[in-house]
Structures are given as structure tokens and as C-alpha cells.
Amino acid sequence: MALDALARRWEGIPYCAALGVRVDAIERDRVRLRLPFADENSNPGRALHGGVSASLIDVAGALAAWTGVEDRPGLEASTLDLSVNYLAAAIGEEVIASAEVLRRGKELAYSQVDVRSAVGKRIAVGMVTYRVFDHAANPVAAERQRSATESGGAAGEKIRGADLFVTSPFIARLGMTVAAAHGGESVLVMPAAPASDDGAGAAHEGAVAALIDTTGALAAWSLVGLDMRFKASTLGIHVNFHAPARGDLRAHARTLRRNNEIFLNQVAVSAGGDVVATGAVTYRIVVD
Among 63, 100, 213, 222, which is least packed by CB within 10 angstroms? Predict the structure, then answer.
């Protein structure tokens, strides 16, 4: 596939189109994406939502990986691993994501992504491990499968204001609702919807990352009580994608450890009872 056609295809993915992603430059192993400011991608105060930054890193890293792939029938392609560190806030401004493939293997491509404001301020950095697998060349792979199921979760109790946590424009667009948030555990549900679609009938990995980020953050808040006077932010997320996330998604987070202002949270996302993604969210709440 020609690179300009690949760029247009990426922009046309429903989730990417909903975010407003534009491909500014593309060549083998390198891409640059632009995301104009939009209220729909923001937290209160016009700050870019962390889930949007994670999504942009995933999209850029995956596209950089695809620039070296010979597209043909029978390929299974998806993000395998996503790691994000947040460095600064983007307030009411456009951001630019630059991705470079550091290494290509037989199945895997490793992309490094740098997100900056239009004036060069670093917003976030990330790594994307992308997998392209040829089933036709590996018929025995179908017999080498194992998956996990999700069980347990908070019992439905919610801290005061929990439902307000998912009313920011970006999260509201994805349709997330809070099923539980209490005692260091939270459960969020994200329905299948065009705004999160990857173009192949599953939730885009960026939307899944946003769900993990939000669920992990709310688990931390459930320990201290939701008080928006406290400063808070995600310091980093790390996500493993197990399978395409089809249908309504359920995310269950637990705060495994709190150390003063720092909360370490583990999250599992399931679809139809099967785990489709897991993640770790490092969150900070500056409690006065």
C-alpha cells in the first residue's frame, strides 16, 4: 500500500476520526501526527485528557510500524504493548506526535513516540510494541492459544461524586459509566460504539487505554474521596492487549499499594467474561 493511501486509511479509522488525528508526514519507519485542540478531547480546564495522549501514542506507533508492512490477506495486526509516561499538561493547544521504529523483527516492530506541543514542550513519551502475524505461514499457531476470564470486582458501592468522574467531554463521548467505586476498587463499563471503533468492529487500543487509565484513577480516588480541589494526574500507564476488544467492555481496577500521594493500580478489561487487556496505572493525588 502506498504511504499516502496508508495515511488516509489511518485518518479514516472511526476512533482516529473522532479524535481529529491528522497525518502530517509519513515515510518508512517514521510518521508525524497532528492533533488540533478540541474541547471534546479535554478535561475540565481545557487540559488534554491523558487517554487522548495515550491514544495518540498508540496510533502513531502503530502507523510507523505499518509503513514497513506488505499488506496482504491473512495478516493479524494489533498493538501488543503500550507504555506511556506523562511529562506535562497540554492546555488548550495543538499537540504533535512523532514516531520512529527502533527495531523490526519477524513479527514485532518497536516504535518510540514523542508528543509535544506546537511550540516544542514535551507532553508525553511512549513505546509501542506492534505485532503483525501471518496465519497462513503459521498454521500451527491456532492450536497454541490460552485466555483468561475475569471474575470478582467491587460490590456496586460508589463514593460520593463517582458518576461525575466520567462526565468530562472525552470520557463522556466514549460512553463510560461507573458500576462501582469504593475501598480501592472501581468498575467501569464502556459500551461498543462508533466513537471508539477501530474500523474492524472492535474498540480501538487507544480507547481501551483510556478506559484503563480512567478506571485505575477512580480506584485511587475511591480511597481518599473524590474532591476536585486536590491536584491529581496519571504519572504513567502500561497496557498489554490480549485480544480484540469486541462488544461492551468491563474494566475492574484495584489499588494494590498507596504510598502517600502515589497510588499503584492494576486493571483488567474483559469482554463477555474474557480478559482482553490488562494494565498498570501509576496515579498521584496531592491530598492537602
Answer: 100
